[in-house]
Amino acid sequence: MKKVILLLSLLCNSNVNAEAIEVLHWWTAKGELEAQRILEKMLLEQNIEWNNFAIVGEGGESAVRVLQLRALSGNPPDAAQIKGPDIGEWAKIGMLEEIKQITDTSLWQQKLPQIVRESVTFDGEYMAVPVNVHRVNWLWLNKAIFDKLDLPVPATWDSFFAVADKIKAAGYIPLAHGGSVWQDASLFESVALSILGGEKYKQAFVEHNEAVLTSPEMIRVFKLFKRLHKYTDSNMLGKDWHEASQLISDNKAAMQFMGDWAKGMWHAQGKQPMVDYICTDVPESKGLFSYNIDSFVFFEKNSSAAHQKTQTVFAEMLLSEKFQVAFNLAKGSIPVTNAIEIGQFDSCAQKSFADFNNAELVPSFTSNLASTSHLRNIMIKIISNYFNNPDADAQRTVKSLSLAIRAINK
Ligand code: GAL
After folding, report:
1. Helix (H, G, I), strand (E, B) or coil at 81
2. Is 31 in the pocket of ligand 1 (CB under 6 A)?
3. Does the pLDDT at position 58 exceed 80?
4. What's the rounded mean pLDDT across residues 277-300?
5. Sign of CA dihedral 61, 62, 63, 65
6. Which residue, among 410, 84, 409, 405, has the nearest Cα to 218 in the 3D structure?
C-alpha cells in the first residue's frame, strides 16, 4: 500500500511537464537564500521549475559580468536580477521583453509607488518587474553588547565615535565590516548621505555635479569615512558582508552599517529585532532614506506559447500579495506594493516602510540605483582604495573621483 501511495504522489508531483525558467541572481547568503527558495517553491506550485543561475559575490558585481558574457555569446538566461539604470543599458540594445507584453501593467500606476515605477522604466516603458525595497542607510547594533556596556544608541557622529572607543576598550570589535570594495563604498555612501544631506547627495551621485563632488563638504565626508577604518577588524579583509553580519550574531562585534538584507540573514538565524539587535538610523541621518530596489528583467529569446506563459506566471507571481509578504519577510526588505498590511512585518520593516513613505528618498549609488554598473564599479574602487591606503589624501581623492566620473560620462 505504502508503495502505491508513494508512486501516486510521485506521479502527482512529477514535473515532467513543468516549464523551466533560468534565472540569474546573486542571492546566495543566508536569508537571501531563504527568500530565493520561497520564490522557487511558489513557482513550482504553478508547475514552473526554477533553474538556478546563482553567482556568488556581494552586491552582484560578478553576476553582472557573467551575465554580460552569456548575453554576448547569444545565450542569455530567461530572466535576471538587474536593477536601476542597468535595465536601460540592456533595453537599449533590444535584448529585453517589454513587461506589458508579458503581463497587464495598467494597474501598476495605482499599485506601485512612483519611485518604484521609475526604477523599472526605460524610455517610458516598464522593462523589469520590481520585487522589494531595501533600505541601505541603516546602523545595526548588537543589543547584548550595548546593554552590557550600558551604551546609548548613537544619534550623532560624536556619540558614535565615543561609543566605538568604549566598545574597543572593552575588547569587542566596534564595527563589523568585511574588507571588500563594495562594502567599503556602501559604508562611504551612508556617511556621505549623512554629511551632505539628500539634496547634495543627489547633486553629487546622481547628477555628478563637479562643484559638489569636489566641495569642502565632500572632503569632510572622506575624512570622516577614513576615521571608521580603525574600528574594523583586519582579519575581515576579503570577507563577504554576511560574514561581517555573523560577527553581530556571535556577539563579537557591536555595530554594522549595512542594508537590511542583513536583517534577512538574522531572521533566518532566528534572531529578533530589538531583542538580539537594534536597527537605527545612521548617525545624523534622520529623515533620509537611501533605497535599493531589486527587480527582474526578461530576455527576449523564445516566443513559444509555453515560454510566454511561464514569463507571465513568473511576473504576476512577483507582485502577488502572497509572494510579497513571504519573500520580503525573509529578505529583510519591504514590499513594493502599497496595498500590503505592514503590521505583519517586524518593527524595523515598519520603520523602513514609514520612512520610505515620509523621508527624503535617494537612490543608493553603491547598489546600482543611481548609475550604470560600469560607472559605479569605477567609483567604488576609488573610494575603497582611499579607505584602505593610510597615506591616501582626501583632497586628491575627490579630484580623482570627479575626473573619473567626467571621463566615463563623456
Ligand atoms: C544587493 C541586492 C540585495 C542584497 C545585496 C547583498 O545588490 O540588491 O538584494 O541581497 O546585494 O547581496
Report:
1. strand
2. no
3. no
4. 98
5. positive
6. 405
Confirm or reject: Cβ of 367 under 6 Å from ligand 1: yes
Protein residue closest via CA to atom 9 of ligand 1: 294
Under 8 Å between Cβ of 258 and 364: no
Per-residue pLDDT, 238: 93
Walk me through the domains of the chain, giving residue ranges and CATH numbers: 2-132+294-357 (3.40.190.10), 138-290+361-409 (3.40.190.10)
- Indicate whether residue 34 lines ligand 1 (CB < 6 A): no
Task: State if residue 59 touches ligand 1 by the CB under 6 angstroms criterion.
Answer: yes
Asked if residue 58 has its Cβ within 6 Å of ligand 1, the reply is yes
Question: Tens digit of pLDDT for each residue in 156-202?
Answer: 999 999 999 999 999 999 999 999 999 999 999 999 999 999 999 99
Protein residue closest via CA to atom 8 of ligand 1 = 294
Atom of ligand 1 nearest to the CA of 81: 8
Question: Is the pLDDT higher at 303 or at 123?
Answer: 123
Q: Which atom of ligand 1 is nearest to the CA of 294?
A: 8
46 C-alpha vs ligand 1 centroid, how far in Å? 26
Q: Is the C-beta atom of 32 inside 6 A of ligand 1? A: yes
- Distance (Å) of CA 50 to CA 36, 39, 124: 10, 9, 30
Rounded to the nearest angstrom, the distance between the alpha carbon of 176 and the centre of ligand 1 is 17
What CA–CA distance (Å, rounded) separates 310 from 312?
A: 5
In angstroms, rounded to a whole number, what is the distance separating the alpha carbons of residues 337 and 125?
19
Q: How many angstroms does the Cα of residue 281 sit away from the middle of ligand 1?
A: 19
* Spacing, Cα 366 to ligand 1 middle (Å): 10
Nearest atom (ligand 1) to Cα of 28: 12
Judge contact between 369 and 119, C-beta under 8 A: yes
pLDDT in tens, 14-23: 445 679 999 9
Q: Which of 96-100, 302-306, 375-379 has the lowest mean pLDDT?
A: 302-306
Residue 201 carries which side chain, given as an amino acid letter?
Y
Cα-to-centroid distance, 406 and ligand 1 (Å): 27
The long-range contacts involving 345-353, CB below 8 angstroms and separated by at least 24 positions, are 346/263, 346/267, 346/272, 346/273, 347/273, 347/274, 347/279, 348/138, 348/260, 348/263, 348/273, 348/274, 348/279, 349/260, 349/263, 351/279, 352/133, 352/135, 352/260, 352/289
